[in-house]
Amino acid sequence: MSLALDQGGSASRALVFDGEGRELAAARIEVADHRPRPGWVEQDPEAVVDSLRQAAAAALLQLDAAQRGSLQACGLSCQRSSLVCWDRGSGAALSPILSWQDTRAADWLAAQALDAEAVRASTGLYPNAHFGLSKIRWCLDHLDEVKRAAADGRLVIGSLAAFLAFRLLDQRPCLVDPANASRTLLFDLARGNWNHELLERFAIDPGWLPGIARSDAEFGDLVVPNDTSSQRLPLRLLSGDQSTAAFAYGEPRSDAAYLNVGTGAFVHRLAAQAPAGSRLLRSVIHWSDSPQYVVEGTVNGAGSALAWFAGQHGIAHIATTLDEQWTDDAPGDAVFLNGIGGLGSPDWRPRFASRFIGEATRQQQLAAVAESIVFLIQRNLGLLQGIGEPCAHVLVSGGLSHSDRFCQALADLSQLPLRRPAQCEATARGTAFLLAGRPAHWARLPEQRFEPRRNPALLARYRRWSDCMAAALLER
Fold it and tell me: Where in the chain is the domain with CATH 3.30.420.40?
């Protein structure tokens, strides 16, 4: 049995699984973000640390004494591109958490005139303000506490996962795994370590960064309090949320595409290299004795686009009521050019003006926003389908996957069967699979299957949307 901790953009979760993948307990603590300026997305480091402690304690309280005694280890998966600065001595945060959605330093990054293909060849990523490099440089240039800590030799700048491991574990390790390190734009995938040429170019002292450890290292001990005492669990996995999600159903298959749809949407397939010119990412999902890679497409404006629209119109609980409002007669002829959070692959535009094309009622606009998420995912899925062996189906998870209309629309547009496992917290379940030693017999979840249908109206809107996006991308 194991405890899986999942720190996401809107909540911290703790789930307990047995050795075959059956969920035994679950707890969730919501966490807020703050958006003080356009392009800025922050979280309170102390609130996030406390939320994980609370979630872990709440999950263990759901177990009986025998189950608690059977717990052997825990794992932690986090938002990969979120970043924080802290004091090496006290552990105190010196900055807010700069969310993966934060693009405050986009102008600085654009001014660096980087060779995008050379950066991708080394790091697997295209230069983009969602990743860590520009956030690191912004903190060094703008935060006085960070400057003082750097001068005094007290500074650590790292992925959120490294900060949380430092703060939650008794041993206070200053380590990060490859999946999270690789989201900084400073990790060399071939060497398995920091890229010293890039560090030198951007005046980043390697001593400020956590050391690199394999994904399944012995990181230290998490102490979880209960009613009468406390329980000590070794942390034996540190990874990224999308990385562990790839293992939710067992060993990833080369004939499947994996889609996780939350605040953003991330779709990937097993492959060692991204095709030249595809503008997709090469991502590490696990690094034990050797690295395991996927080719990945990213969409920034998934759940965040629906949340943006709900905020504009005062709509409560938009995710749970989406299918009620996304009716058969919507969206009419309207399309939505979705630049919420900037454009991910294959465009890599940190700023893009979102807009509706065509007259529409509010309900039709909502449907157009929902369809824009499907359209952005399909662009990436279409690129991924050409990699390796033929793609047989799409496995989908995440909050937006609960929408039947979303799943059916993507199946219709991609002409691929879409499989949605029941009640699957993919990140946590993948963490449990890895902690269990990647067992051959991993409990199969009941699933709903969405078969592709002919949908000429949806296809026509996708073509119109694609033409409008192409024209908008030519604008300056």
Answer: 2-239, 250-424+446-476
